Write a sequence for this structure.
């Protein structure tokens, strides 16, 4: 058992079972991300709107600057932030800090900077806590049985075929409810430390209730019910509010 992050103010130091290595997940993520970016480029929908790209990157930079509260090594990650013009109400961050924000979520929810920070903070937190690696590991144990999985991963990790796993566990399959709640809490702390009012995180879910669409965003997948989520976020927002006040003073 290992833990990928320090606790921060929200207590994110939960222990995790990891079979795949971080390097394997990151390599898989890099390949999958390059593919997504190449396809978007080909379709002419990559970073079309310079103003939106600048806005998203500026907010991302502020959030990334706060990541050492959860893990020191994150500042050295090869972070990438891109915007894809597509109606999808979604955003995600692959292992190792590879972010995509779709214009659909910004437009449909008319996101303020603070709300956008909450969305990105949530996605960044999935990557910080390495939820994809945890999910992939849990899946391997379920499929193979723990003895077989341990034997396989213990004997020869490099031969494990993990191509596509990072992508699959970032946006192919939903995160579990507990991962969503954890990402909500960590993300809210990140945004508060970055100088965004944490109560704006609560607001997104009120807006999300009003939007109906055919696509189910990652943020909504197996999510705790909006009612529970709003209640939990309110408690967290109150808890991290002093961090926001402190950050605001420094501005
Ligand atoms: Zn999520």
């Amino acid at each position: 058992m290992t833990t990928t992050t320090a606790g921060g103010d929200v207590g994110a130091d939960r222990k995790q079972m990891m079979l795949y290595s971080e390097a394997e997940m990151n390599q898989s993520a890099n390949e999958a991300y390059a593919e997504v970016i190449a396809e978007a480029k080909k379709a002419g929908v990559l970073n079309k709107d310079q103003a939106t790209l600048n806005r998203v990157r500026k907010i991302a930079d502020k959030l990334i600057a706060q990541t050492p509260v959860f893990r020191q090594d994150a500042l050295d990650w090869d972070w990438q932030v891109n915007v894809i013009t597509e109606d999808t109400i979604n955003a995600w961050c692959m292992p190792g800090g590879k972010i995509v924000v779709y214009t659909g979520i910004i437009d449909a929810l008319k996101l303020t900077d603070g709300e956008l920070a909450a969305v990105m903070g949530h996605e960044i937190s999935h990557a910080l806590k390495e939820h994809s690696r945890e999910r992939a590991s849990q899946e391997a144990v379920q499929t193979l049985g723990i003895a077989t999985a341990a034997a396989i991963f213990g004997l020869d990790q490099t031969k494990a075929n993990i191509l596509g796993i990072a992508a699959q566990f970032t946006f192919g399959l939903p995160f579990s409810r507990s991962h969503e709640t954890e990402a909500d809490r960590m993300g809210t702390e990140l945004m508060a430390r970055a100088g965004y009012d944490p109560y704006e995180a609560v607001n997104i879910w009120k807006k999300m209730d009003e939007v109906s669409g055919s696509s189910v965003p990652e943020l909504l997948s197996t999510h705790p019910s909006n009612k529970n989520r709003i209640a939990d976020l309110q408690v967290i927002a109150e808890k991290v509010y002093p961090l926001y006040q402190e950050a605001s003073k420094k501005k």
